[in-house]
Design a protein that fits this description.
It is built from twelve helices and no strands. By secondary structure, it is mostly helical. Bound molecules: heme C (2 copies).
Length: about 230
């Protein structure tokens, strides 16, 4: 087992640093250490230690209220249980609740822009966001399947090892080796619609989606082919 608080404290220091306004060069430097940091964080939380970055929110989600909201409003596009709808609409089931809540807050505040979701998030109260996020997070995620045999090798290679020549870090370092993500910050990617993932990587690359400094920096260095391979 890991000897604990020293590591958790330094992890916190790094995460604090990441939230501070830092230059793209700093970010790339920090990202090189991410796989290590993420591994430590995962081991720390597995061994029952509090993950330093996890907010200690007291309010408990109301799952029945979350389900009611999801059924009335969100189901039209995200399916009643957050599973497969149209490929442009992200799968929400099994996503980390903190990530879902952050996205809804970002849509609401305009930090993340999308004509449809801005309108959907606007009327949600803090409690609505907490409840509906917990509802979708409580559903079990399903695996996806690669469809493009030619590109799957390239996608897997970048996912696991990054692209050293371009300073692109391994996606696995933050999104976990099997794509399940690492709560609370790093979303699940496994099983997500390839089309949605491709749109997001392209939006990060173009700076259209700019609610995550690391992802903007990483996507900036990906070609169309690399994005398609990763999404698949
Ligand atoms: C009319 C269709 C529609 C409805 C209704 C809708 N959404 Fe969405 N939602 C979308 C689309 C499209 C996106 C992808 C936006 C983008 O490309 O940035 C999205 C994205 C999201 C995301 C971001 C997921 C991620 O992986 O980053 C969350 C969270 C979300 N919706 C939650 C909700 C909730 C909760 C409701 C109900 C209150 C809702 N949506 C209703 C279409 C819809
Ligand atoms: C330094 C850590 C880090 C690395 C490395 C990283 N990501 Fe991310 N990624 C994040 C964070 C944090 C978010 C959530 C952004 C937010 O809060 O909106 C994210 C979000 C995403 C999303 C959006 C998910 C959704 O549901 O909308 C995609 C897609 C994604 N990353 C793909 C990748 C790919 C592909 C790679 C490798 C080329 C990669 N990431 C490497 C930290 C990272």
């Amino acid at each position: 087992m890991l000897d604990s608080w020293g590591i958790v404290e330094s992890l916190e220091a790094v995460l604090t640093l990441l939230n501070a306004p830092i230059t793209p060069t700093d970010q790339i430097m920090l990202m090189r250490f991410y796989p290590l940091i993420a591994a430590v964080a995962m081991t720390a939380s597995l061994s029952g230690l509090a993950y330093a970055a996890e907010p200690t929110k007291a309010a408990k989600p109301d799952l029945a209220a979350g389900e009611a909201k999801a059924t009335q409003v969100c189901a039209a596009c995200h399916a009643a249980d957050g599973s497969r709808g149209l490929t442009a609409n992200p799968i929400l089931q099994g996503q980390h609740p903190q990530y879902l809540a952050k996205q809804l807050e970002d849509f609401k505040s305009g930090k993340r822009k999308n004509a449809v979701m801005t309108g959907m998030a606007a009327p949600l109260s803090e409690a609505d966001i907490r409840n509906v996020s917990a509802f979708y997070a409580g559903k079990k995620a399903k695996d996806g399947f690669a469809t493009n045999k030619d590109l799957v090798g390239l996608g897997e290679k970048i996912y696991r090892g990054g692209i050293a020549a371009k300073g692109v870090p391994a996606c696995a370092g933050c999104h976990s080796p099997n794509g399940a993500g690492i709560p609370a910050q790093y979303p699940r990617l496994g099983g997500q619609h390839a089309e949605y993932t491709k749109t997001q990587l392209t939006a990060f690359r173009q700076g259209e989606r700019h609610n995550s400094a690391p992802m903007v920096t990483i996507a900036a260095n990906l070609s169309d082919k690399e994005i398609t391979a990763l999404a698949d």
